[in-house]
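Q: Predict the bound structure with N-(iminomethyl)-L-glutamic acid.
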Amino acid sequence: MKLLIINIRELYQVEDTPCSMVCGKDMAFLPSIKDAYLLMEDERISAFGEMLSLSSSLIADKVIDATGKFVLPAFCDSHTHIVYAGSREQEFIDKINGLSYEEIARRGGGILNSAKQLHEATEDQLYAEALVRVNEMIRIGTGAAEIKSGYGLNTEDELKMLRVIKRLRETTPLTIRATFLGAHAVPTAYKGSQSAYVDLIVNEMIPAVASEGLADFVDSFCDKGFFTCEETERIMEAGARYGMRSKIHANELALSGGIQIGVKHNALSVDHLEFTGDAEIEVLKDSSTMPTLLPGAAFFLGMNYAPARKMIDSGLPIALASDYNPGSSPSGNMKFILSLATIKMKLTPEEAINAATINSAYAMGLNDTHGSICIGKRANVLITKEIPSIYYLPYAYTSDLIDSVILGGKVVC
Ligand code: NIG
Ligand code: FE
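A: Predicted complex:
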């Protein structure tokens, strides 16, 4: 199956040789070709270039005329929690009335509320609810996502969540990476004996997850009021013994030390980072750990944004992700994340797009196959509507500007 897009006004994020990530000053640059074509064969990108260089003898099975439209790699969303049951809009009201995220958690709300709802849901119900979210994410331009467990908080329910993620991976065109997040909160049954719960994660949950091959990565909510650095290190070491690299929730609520621990154990990413100082930035330099920012959570919780500008100006790469979850970011709209990154964190649109494509692909180990327009990569692209420029994407922050989405070389919407 050959799918050809012609007359593209500008084709963005093109690469001759695949790079792993874009750092610092280079993030301001988004390589592009004007008046371009893009050829996809089966699931992969097979050629691209200027229209002038397109051979007239090429015969494609389907041709899309993109006159006046822009083409970009589909968004990569390297941090989500989209397998959950129900919703938590009552807590949204509690927050409006002045309770903090931590206060809600202490009252048995927050993650424990979702754990209760998830426990009562069947695997089929969870799959059906998550499928709606996956389809919505695809419709608004996401082509690859990481999905975490972490609302199970006991072995059986964590496995239930991970099996749902596996089923989503097998039945949808979204490229999916799975992360085991048993250390998301201490379940009610272990209140007062947090270290016994960490023992359970290390001795029972991680081996069970690994024996079914259900997770690519391991995560821990390393923050004030949740899991300590020492506990997180134990979890990272246990994950590593089973071949799972870590992606750590760090420094969302305090200077937790999570960034240092993440780098020490060669985490693939450290995520959130609202509390990041000079020492943390220094530690991230010369590491292979991707700082991943989730401005949707800062927006929704009314917190400070991570110091993205300072990180990039210090030479670091950053990735952006939605953190789609029922408590702190009930949205998987990566275009809105571009708006938050530009408006609230002062990234240029080019920097934000690099962060939401190639760097976010890196943060889930997919940079060889996703995140840019490069021959041999998976044919995951989005076509915009007719807009004045790609700056219009973050600028018109609530407009639906995605015309169509192609995943694995097939038009999916
Ligand atoms: O990434 N920070 C921890 N976990 C999620 C929130 C999950 C929830 O509140 O349900 C986050 O923001
Ligand atoms: Fe999260």
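A: Residues 251 and 343 are 22 Å apart (CA to CA).
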